[in-house]
Specification:
178 residues; 4 strands
Length: 178
């Protein structure tokens, strides 16, 4: 049945989806188990691989992560802080929101490269040994945050992952233009 009140309505944006009302889940609240998050993530991952192939799945996850990362930086972080304080704010927010425990291993001020680790990562901590990195969404998320903060295009690549036998996920983030 066609709803005449919905005619000519514009496409809903990511930001509009994120403008949820906290009292919408007055009994359950806004927390949910990691297992529920992983059901969403890994069902999407396997469906995308089945339908479009692994390379396309990786590209889509990175792009979605990037979109989420820029939103996260704009809405949950203070992008006016100096880098050291910004990274501290990012660490605090990631722990508060139970995304993971961020540690900055190093910042190269000459070329803008940042090495960081995330432990207790919602995406993969506790997974069995899979022989490949799986945190493509996180690669995009980190790149989106740093791009928004620096106003330069960043990319992030996962170097180590729980799924490759490590106890943390390690990322190398670097600006695309140096």
């Amino acid at each position: 049945m066609k709803n005449i009140f919905m005619e000519n309505q514009k496409e809903i944006t990511f930001e509009e989806y994120m403008a949820y009302k906290k009292d919408g889940r007055e009994n359950l609240g806004d927390n949910l188990p990691v297992a529920v998050y992983r059901m969403l993530e890994y069902s999407l991952r396997s469906t995308l691989i089945e339908e479009y192939g692994k390379e396309t799945q990786i590209k889509i996850f990175r792009k979605a992560g990037y979109q989420a990362g820029t939103f996260f930086a704009k809405n949950y972080l203070n992008c006016d802080l100096p880098l050291e304080r910004f990274l501290g704010d990012l660490q605090t927010q990631m722990e508060t929101m139970k995304i993971g425990v961020l540690r900055v291993e190093g910042v190269n001020s000459d070329d803008g490269t940042i090495m960081l680790t995330v432990s207790e990562d919602a995406d993969c901590s506790g997974l069995p040994l899979l022989g490949e990195t799986v945190c493509n969404y996180d690669e995009g998320f980190i790149a989106g945050i740093l791009s928004e903060y620096t106003e330069k295009n960043y990319k992030a690549q996962e170097i180590d992952c729980w799924a490759t036998g490590e106890r943390v996920c390690r990322f190398r983030a670097e600006p695309l233009e140096k």
